[in-house]
What we know:
This protein is α/β, with parallel strands linked by helices and 358 residues long.
Amino acid sequence: MPSGISVVICCFNSSAKLAPTLKHLYDQKGILLASWEIILVDNCSTDDTASQAAGIWGSFPLSKPDFKVVNELTPGLSAARQKGINESRYDYVLFCDDDNWLEEDYLSTALKIMQDNSQIGALGGTGFPIFEEFEPPYFWKNQYHALAVGHQSVINGDITDERGVLYGAGMVLNKTAYKILQERFQFQFQLSDRLNNTLLSSGDHELCLALKKIGFRIFYERSLRFKHYIPAFRTTIAYYKRLFLGFGMSYAMLQVYRVNKDSLNHLKNDYKYIVLRCLKNIMLTRLKLFLSGYYFKKNKFKYLDNIHFLYSNIGQLKTVVKIKNQYKTQFKVIPLFSQNTEPRVSGEPPVVNFNTID
């Protein structure tokens, strides 16, 4: 693979958002035109996303990297990102959301970091919110982390053994690492991630967890900066409830990443125990919200930490009662979990013991 970055923009009805996103990409500095490309993945849009994107990019003067639009007919962000990876020609893939405005040195800085350390499986940056209307109350206390903005860690550099995961906005993927996941371990996402207008999420977390399992490192570089446009509807209490519900559903579906061969049959991992725990958390949190006055006050943003906990537990409960102990079957049949070791190929990073708890 040639050394460079393929920028993948996954879109569902994105025509109204793309102009500033593409303009910020066009304005990139310090990277050769031959070292990057843009792949826009139209994921079942019902608007004119594809034609708008082509028109916007075509309106910029000459001397610009290659740009192409591809279609992915399987709905869901994970499927769209997979399509982008498959279509990419460079050894690194950057996931730029349709509302991300990258700083002009983002690509050049990210490429240098990745080229300097082949152990990095995924690299993340720092998003800064641009609100359509106004910053909601308590945003930097209890909301920013849910909207892919703000610092991802107190550590600048290797966060594998600290936070260990990144948000997908602005994330750079080492395609060699991903190729190992697919070819040796038949990796497939357990999560569809964002599906049309649903808020099932955490495909980015799943990718980081999988990369960790085969010995790659997760890095955060705070000097990688981008603006994240946040429309007003995404900072409403109603939206947050749907988002947190999706977090809980995703958490339940990624149970297989949180067990090893010794804890596989532990009582606390059994779905019946999880159901009881979720029911307890739901009842106690509702009581706490009631006693604190949540149900009687107009401004509810103060309580978002508790709302997050409540709806995440509801989402987890709804999912666990459906999938039960599915993680046990996954652990036994999916190579990423069922295999203990893999032979190391010269020049490739070591593969860790897969039974290590992440």
